[in-house]
Amino acid sequence: MAVESGTSTERAAPPRPRGRNVRWAVISAVTVLTITSYLDRGNLSVAAPVIRDDLGFSATQMGLVLSAFVWPYAIMNLPSGWAIDRFGPRIIMTVAAVVWSIAGAATGLARSVASFLGLRVLLGMSEAPLFPGALKATDEWFPDHEKARATSVYIAATQVGLAIAPPITTALLIAVDWELMFVLVGALGLLGVACWWYAYRHPDRHPRVSPEELAYIKENQRSAEAADESSAQLGKQWVKLFKYSTIWWMIIGGFCLQYVFWFYITWLPSYLESAQHFSISAAGLLSALPYIAGGIAVVIGGRFSDLLVRRGMRPMDARRRTIAAGSLLTALALAATAASTGPAMAMTLLTIGMFTYSLTTASYWALASDVAETSTMVGSIGSIQNFGGFLGGAFAPIATGIIVDRFGGFVPALIVAAALLLVSVVSYGLLARKKLPV
């Protein structure tokens, strides 16, 4: 195993505190919030074929509606990260979660392309603070050698949300109708709000954290004095981030990664129905398989990345190399899917592709925490990378819809996704190498 010092000596981790570990209760609250948010953002893709039949939308119109969430989400990542760094995650994420729950429920009232667009825009804007806030909370509550593992828990929850959305949404579509389905799913968001508000405080001010756990949390964390000094000039520091090449390679790499993820989220059920000729009920159930595999892979990838750190590799290198390896494997899986000769083979390859893709996701977020010298700009760095990521996510639904309409199938769309992953390999594996002096 290669390490930064050129040796294979394993880094000794401090002993974990005994008894109650509040930091994992914080991660549990983030996890519940994440699952409810992904039910809101993922249910439209499952209902899309029914909505198209009911309201007469074309594939291009549906692609526009599916992408409407992602554009405002991408743009709002920028001010969201700054707000999280400036005001803290507790209030910002609480308000955001209330708004996205209302927007998700109100989607059941939509009847036109314009009304769907407006509500999906609101949903995207309000969900933007979720992961910058979760990243900030993780950075505050965990030492370096546990960050990717902690991140993998709530990132795995994204896969859980996507895995349970198809069967839940399909069952509701059959039992009631798509309108009521949106209302019921949106109402679940309030559960996540309650869990988050109750569980989260900064560790220095949390009434239930023990002195032993607080000391463990601060082990190997970056200097608080350095962070406090730079926080006085937070606005200037935020603008200066864009002068570093590492930030731009993270934006480009994130664009390519999230393009692929949103190809899955928005078009997988339609691909299974139209290209592989599954029924709507079968497509809804089979759509869960890649996300189940992905949820397992997120945890594996996070633990592997932390293992590299414990064995002496620089945290930033452990994260970016894990991302590059997972991206390469996923590119191969999607290229093979394009050449597949039957439904069973295609479904298997797509599941493998989501598994290998998900090996990258905990490191994707942990990298944003580890790339800087201090903890002051963690939310901002994470949100800037995710801004680039969700630009890719915004292009994926509409680009796929146009490709399907103009070329008559999904094979070219799969090839485009595989090619973009190779760009991600280069961006993270070779070019995003320099640590940020902020």
TrEMBL record:
Residues 26-436 form the Major facilitator superfamily (MFS) profile domain. The chain crosses the membrane at residues 21-39, 59-75, 153-174, 180-200, 246-265, 277-301, 322-339, 345-367, 387-404, 410-431. It comes from Amycolatopsis acidicola. GO terms for cellular component: plasma membrane. SUPFAM superfamilies: MFS general substrate transporter. PROSITE patterns: MFS. PANTHER family: FI19708P1-RELATED (PTHR11662:SF399), SOLUTE CARRIER FAMILY 17 (PTHR11662). It is a multi-pass membrane protein. The keyword Transmembrane applies. It is found in: Cell membrane. This is MFS transporter. InterPro entries: MFS, MFS_dom, MFS_Na/Anion_cotransporter, MFS_trans_sf, Sugar_P_transporter. Its main location: membrane. CDD domains: MFS_ExuT_GudP_like.
